[in-house]
Amino acid sequence: SEPPPKMMENKVFLSFAFYSTVLIVKMYVVAIITGQVRLRNKAFANPEDALRNGGLQYYRQDPDVERCRRRVPGPPAHRNDMENIFPFLFLGAIYSLLEPSPAVARLHFFVFCAGRVVHTLAYLLRLRAPTRSVAYSVAQLPCFSMALQILLAAAPYW
Fold first, then answer.
1. Quick one: pLDDT band at residue 70, thresholds 50, 70, 90?
2. Where are the transmembrane segments (predicted)?
């Protein structure tokens, strides 16, 4: 049997891979929920989908579908996730190369992941304010921490 790749020996990277995958799966789940609400409420974004599902009268917006798609105030849910999760993916990957403490790194990854999951649940389940805002803010803390550590490590090479 061949030895495992060096990357698979890096506990920080494995933790990052786990939490990143959880976040990507969460994004897929939101997309599936949005699609199911579209079907249930017969509110389609494209005329060809409306025609296939009953007629052009279903080529329309629906408040429940829009709730799945957007954050109020703010951009559509998927764009909101991309604006937050994609930078985390970059920062977490680079941060993993800095050889941080596995426990500290895991805490960074967990806090971000938990914050994003709570943010999505708060939105979809209409939890009382400021749950969503607090979840968003808490999730930003590890990203700022990782970014600062990356900048400090890379500054001598600027």
1. low
2. 12-33, 104-125, 134-155
138 class by beta-carbon count within 10 Å (0-12 exposed, 13-18 middle, 19+ buried)? middle
Tokens of 57: 């009268």
Architecture of the CATH domain 6-157: Up-down Bundle (1.20)
Which of 38, 13, 26, 10 minimizes the C-alpha distance to 114? 26
Percentages helix, strand, coil for the chain (3-state, rounded to 5) are 75, 5, 20
Provide the percentage of residues in the chain whose pLDDT is more than 70.
87
Q: Where are the domains of the chain?
A: 6-157
**Which candidate, 18, 1, 2, places its Cα nearest to that of 26?**
18
Residues with Cβ within 8 Å of 86's Cβ and at least 6 positions away in sequence, in order, are none
How many C-alpha atoms does 99 have within 13 Å on its Cβ side? 1
**Which residues fall within 8 angstroms of residue 35, CB to CB, at 6 or more apart?**
none
